[in-house]
């Protein structure tokens, strides 16, 4: 009985953890090309979820709403890059941190004004009835999270390995200046990474909203944990975020079950502190040697 | 093919180039020699766009390119094999080569078929790379990485190729191999600007040479002329 509850909690927690992993993966994409990340990524998740909800309410079917949401996320990612990050990177400053937070706040106010402050349900055609797999109950909705996360990460990795544009993306990540000498525009590659990262954030919003509801503050808890996952796994760890995300998700779910729901946020923060103290490059990250 | 006129460039407030002027005619190999810190690498970077010149002109095939982004200049036909080789370590040897031809290949699919002839040409020139196509470039030896860097620049079918310190940090046997390669590139008619520490070896392959001192050209001439110049003899060829 007890083992079954633990198993059940761990599995549904781990599935939620995949959402953290997906957002963390979005951090990795932009960090690879520009050594910058969007601190307003949570607002991007939220505003894309609201946009997708609007599409759904306008009568778009699920299969048309998803690409619409992803496209919107990509556009918003490009807005963050153009209006914020690029200005700072051009001056080789760290101003992108503050600028991306500010753009996030702007998205937040925009969402409150357009869609209101209330949390709203996100209708989905995917059933929430549990199905029994290997002794635990999971819903199709939870499984759709796993399918979506692995599908988009797989597609992006395939793009990076199989297309010349993807290889150019990797080249900019490895050595920006040398890539420029090949005729690869690093500015465009950074734009591409922000666009992809925006799509990834939008998908995270679309996948999680039917489970958690949509509201202006929906992403604040998500983003903190995605950030923990990114730091714990390492910002250059690739699929390392998946393992750490699932682990954190499972841990949280068990913590809130055994210690009370007030402790739900604790494991992520403890992991973050431990990682920063013990493995600043992440569990799966490569140690970077700074050349002076 | 490549003309540099009164080029000024530097890092922040410190000006390294104080009016460099040089010309590389089509199909010739021009060597740029000089002491450490004379501004050879800075000249190369200012030509290829890694560094924005503060004054002066760079003409590539008659077109002014100074001030453009490096990627733009590369697409206009300048290939720069940089100091320290700068191969893409995590990527495979073949991917490195393919990226060399980035500007004229399709972005998504079919790029491999289209690059086939150029790949074969590079592999014929450097048979050792053919055995390592799938290996990641970071695991190659220094000499192999240099071959890869030159091969990658060749893939672009450039109008002008800049070769910065290709012998740096290599064992003497490998240095000889590098110079044999440079000679072959010259025989193929590739227009080359070569920066070298080994002034003597560079002058042996060059058609014309410039000697840099403190950010400008101090002496220029054919290798034979420089060989008769006592100052050059004492300082660089001794």
The radius of gyration over CA of chain B amounts to 17 Å
Using only CA atoms, what is the Rg of chain A? 19 Å
State the separation between the terminal residues of chain A, measured CA to CA: 58 Å
Q: Low-confidence parts of chain B lasting 5 or more residues at pLDDT below 50?
A: none
Name the chain pair whose interface involves the most residues: A-B, 22 and 32 residues
In whole angstroms, the N-to-C terminal distance of chain B is 32 Å
How many DSSP H or I helices of chain A?
Answer: 11
Strand order of the largest sheet of chain B: 6-7-8-3-9-10
> Helix/strand/pairing class of chain B, anyone?
alpha/beta
Which outline of chain B best applies?
globular
The run of helices and strands of chain A is HHHHEEHHHHHHH
The main pleated sheet of chain A reads as: 2 strands, antiparallel
Total number of strands of chain B = 10
Percent of residues in β-strands of chain B = 25-35%
Number of helices of chain B: 10
Instruction: Average the pLDDT over all residues of chain A and give the rounded result.
Output: 91
Query: Per the principal axes of the C-alpha atoms, what is the gross shape of chain A?
Result: globular
